[in-house]
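Entry 12.
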Amino acid sequence: MKHLSRLSLLFVLLASLVLGACGGAPTAAPTAAPVVEPTAEPVAEPTVAAAEGISVVDALGRTVEFDEPPQRIVVAGKSSLTIVDTLFLFPEAAERVVGIVVGNQNPSDFLSLVDPGFKETTTILEVEAGPEQIAPLNPDVVIARSFVAETLGTPLEQVNIPVVFVDLETPEQYFRDLVTLGQLFDNQARAEEIQDYYQSRLSAIDGAIQTSGAIKPSVLLLQYSDKGGEVALNVPSASWIQTTEVELAGGDPVWKEAATAGGWTVVNLEQIAAWNPDTIFVIHYQVDSREVVEKLKGDSKWQALKAVQNDEIYGFPADAFSWDQPDPRWILGVTWLAGKIHPTLFPDLDMEQEAQDFFVNIYGIDAATVESQILPNLKGQVK
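Predicted 3D structure (tokens):
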């Protein structure tokens, strides 16, 4: 996007008029720079090179053009955590991300491990922040989820703030959007490195499952909530990454046909008993999921379920954030699920080592920090 302000443009026009008035009859200006013939003396290179423009195609198929890679990036709109955490897979994010929206899940403490100056250099915005709050940050681009295109994207573009939309919901979308982010950072090589990391692990999991011809056990992945003392049981949308994680790990998601409307779908214990899955995975976004699992295992109604009787009910792992979400950690979620669904295929799987490798190689956090700040705080049944 052009960075020449209207005021600057006005000065240029005025200067042109003055020069024209002082120079007598105008002459035709050349349309291109004159060709300089070689001389005996070397010709000095220009001190300022013209910026190389970039063009990206976002998740909505829109082409967004820039004169140069954006230097001031703001993340806005709902469900932005996955964008923020993905941006910081790129080393350039530490200097270029100047503002983020924070909702129920605040990434500040975690991202301070990636970028020690994060809290001092990044402005925190409210979830509902609009152009009035975003414009003072002077962003070169705002990155947002595609579902806020109308409510947030349109108002921003009306005040000439460019917006690039991403999805980051399924693995296919994730890899596609990584390409877009790599272009925005002018670091396509890093985008390829990240994708290679994910693909190598997905291929290893799929290869082991396909080679073995293992039967896919029935699986239930459940979000447990008890806000205000009222228990709610929810299953994810059939199109969400949680469902895809179970499938990639070699499981059969029993709730898939009942959750086609989008969003979390409320279910009750009667429905769960009718499914009676081989394995149950429990997610809790506020407390350690192991606590919930122990509570359910002690409930006589849940003890009637096959998964509970066979001790095949597990608390989903988390560190700063749960590994089930469309966050870069989803690859850890798939890997962990594969080890629980098909333990005989992955007998040597060490999820603490997987986590160590992930945070060192994907986020660039030094091994000592991972060992002291992340691994001791892992939640859920990692082992």
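Annotation: The chain has two domains: 54-194, 215-377. The CA atoms of residues 22 and 123 lie 49 Å apart.
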